[in-house]
Amino acid sequence: MRTRRAGLTALAGVLLGASSLAVLAVRGAPEASSPCRYGPPRRVARLQDERVNECSGLAAGRRNPELFWAHNDSGDSARLFALDREGRTRAVLTVTGARARDWEDLAAGPGPDGTPCLFIGDIGNNSRQRTDLVVYCIPEPVLPAEATELASEPAVAYPFRYPGDSPDCEALLVHPQTGALYLIAKDTSGKPEVYRFPTPLQLDHPVTLERVGSLRLEAPSIMGRMVTGGDIAPDGKRLVLRTYLTVLEFRVPEGAAFEEAFRQRPEVLRGPMELQGEAVAYLPDGHGFLTLPEGKGAPMHLFPCITPGHTK
Could you tell me which residues come within 8 angstroms of residue 21 by beta carbon, excluding any fewer than 6 positions away? Predict the structure, then answer.
């Protein structure tokens, strides 16, 4: 949320000068084999649209697999940007019937009827006092060939509350097969709580989320322990999380249920030092992922899969 940007940016600047060793101090090998090993990240583009100046959420299109959907943090209107892999804006989508109080993350996945949808998390809660927390859902439109501005179908709202104290949150995940919705709290403890929406999803009145566990983030700095975004791979076997200083991938043990991934020690991936990094999304085929920090002209970094046969 905007009210804490200045302090966090200053702290990040100090930490960035300390060296990448601080980032790599989060240790632990993954406890499951990965279908993907990653090569060094590389910058593939810079955002060319000055309206995308505080990117907080990113998701790969399902009906538009050549595009990524993105949104700004608090202070913008209720809209999504369709970005291509050269950093150009192909379309701007107004989210009909939605309010943008503090949008923090974006996810693509199946809606209740299996339709490819976009889920928008109005989940920022810096004050810990919000009573209007909500996740919006819209069908992903098929975009025309030319860049344009258009409006979505009316958004469906899923209001919610937490079981107990209400944390800040910036990470929304949607399972690509089951459609289960997860939120991961943003805190400094290194043990952020993971919550799940009860199913079936409910309209009209807030539901109480179910606590399903907590993560183990052993970074030595506060900035390395604050989860700022995430995504689940299309195969449902991996999930990636951002902090301000790290990129972490958790893997589902062979033969285990998806939520076992939250109990594993993550793999820490070497990456560019992105000041105020918040957005991350797997490619539509899962063979790599993109990261985006906040700021005008932000660099788009690709973490490519280098497993034989999967190189991008």
Answer: none
pLDDT at 34: 53
Residue 12 lies in a domain: yes
Is residue 285 in some structural domain?
yes
In a domain, 309, yes or no: no
Residue 127: inside a domain: yes
Domain of residue 69: give its range. 2-304
End-to-end, the C-alpha distance of the chain in Å comes to 34
The Cα–Cα gap between 140 and 62 comes to 8
Q: If 0-12 CB within 10 Å is exposed, 13-18 middle and 19+ buried, where does residue 65 land?
A: exposed
Q: What is the CATH number of the domain that holds 253?
A: 2.120.10
**Residue among 229, 167, 222, 212 at smallest CA distance from 189:** 222
Under a CB-based contact definition with an 8 Å cutoff, are residues 123 and 145 in contact?
Answer: no
Residues 160 and 239: their CA atoms lie apart, in Å, by 23
Contact of 265 with 216, CB cutoff 8 Å:
yes
* Helical H segments across 130-212, by residue range: none
Residues of the chain falling short of pLDDT 50: 2-33, 311-312
Omega within 30 of 0 (cis) for the link into 220: no
For residue 151 the two structure tokens come to 């409006």
Ramachandran sector of residue 255 (left: φ over 0; alpha: ψ -120 to 50; beta: rest): left
Question: For residue 178, what pLDDT is reported?
Answer: 97
User: With contact defined as beta carbons under 8 Å apart, do 59 and 68 qualify?
Assistant: yes
In order of 75, 134, 285, the CA distances from 104 in angstroms are: 11, 11, 24
Total domain count, the chain: 1
Reading the block at residue 268, the tokens are 């820490």
Coil, helix or strand for 25?
Answer: helix
**CA 182 – CA 209 distance, rounded (Å):** 9
pTM over 0.85: yes
